[in-house]
Design goal:
- By secondary structure, the protein is an all-alpha fold.
- 97% of the residues lie in helices and 0% in strands.
- It is rod-shaped.
- It starts with a helix and ends with a helix.
Length: 107
């Protein structure tokens, strides 16, 4: 009888150790699964943020390009106007130069 009691205690201790080992393994597995899920969520959020910021950058690039195109168009119009003014002055400048040359030639 005492031996049976001792064997029962040993079996209970052995069963408890097995249950503890099983619970520890299950806890590690749960922790690992949680870490993997968190890692997956973090990567998904990073990807989403990256796409959002890239979209915002593209919008700003488009806005800036439009502003530059408009400014370039304005400058082209200004340059065309200045060229027109310069072309109209060429005739009077040529006449002035010819007049001066003729005046100096007669001196």
């Amino acid at each position: 009888m005492p031996l049976d009691l001792f064997n029962a205690i040993e079996k209970a201790e052995s069963d408890a150790k097995a249950q503890l080992a099983s619970a520890q393994k299950e806890a590690r597995d749960i922790l690992k699964a949680c870490e993997e899920a968190c890692s997956h969520d973090i990567k998904a959020q990073e990807k989403q943020l990256k796409e959002k910021y890239q979209e915002e950058i593209n919008k700003r690039k488009a806005t800036i390009q439009l502003m530059l195109d408009n400014k370039m168009s304005e400058k082209e119009k200004e340059n065309a106007q200045l060229l027109k003014q310069a072309e109209s002055s060429i005739t009077s400048a040529a006449s002035y130069i010819a007049k001066k040359v003729l005046q100096n030639g007669n001196s």
